[in-house]
# Entry
Amino acid sequence: MRECEKLIAHIFCTTSNAPDIIVLPELFATGFSMNASIAEKADGETSRWLKLMAERYNCAMLASVPILEGGVIYNRALFVTSSSTEYYDKRHLFSYGKEPTVFTQGIRRTVATYKEFNILIQICYDLRFPVWSRAKNLDYDIIINVANWPASRARVVEPMCRSRAIENQSYYLFVNRCGNDEESSYDGEKYAFDFMGDSLIPVVNGDSYSIFEINSDKLREFRDKFRAWEDTDDFVIF
# Structure
């Protein structure tokens, strides 16, 4: 977290337009691990640090943390502001990698409201399941996915992110970790697509971060003009 704190300080000191949301990858403080000992309580060190950053820089923080609660461990995304904390427990656990042997599956979607946007929060493997992403009556404007997606399967990420954006008439942001561990290597992808599936150009592109601008007026104008969202299938999501 110390290196993340230095990076965040650098961003706010060197960028004229301060970011509203800082997004960090899945299990950013530990790297992805199946070791149950990394789990923290809901008010543990990482959660407190996210709150501190949100207060210090008057922004929202989004990151994934392993949380021990009720005797089980969740891969929990925390959306933290100076005044509130919302959370999402990862729904789709990667059974191929035996993730369900350590983590407990989440049971609900989470749409966090911040400033003028409604944000659907996802974690990594959720990307592969379009029903879980399906917008109903424009209930969100942006999907943000925090990930530990290995380089060996990275080529599928870009087309799926683009598809989720197009089919839900929303923005889609994907933030992956970089580096290596004993199991995999990671390429640190940072994807941002608009409601047409077009790539967003970063307004700032640093060595290890990018800043994207999301335009709510363009989104609403497109949804008002092309109302495909009114014809979506009627089904219930958790």
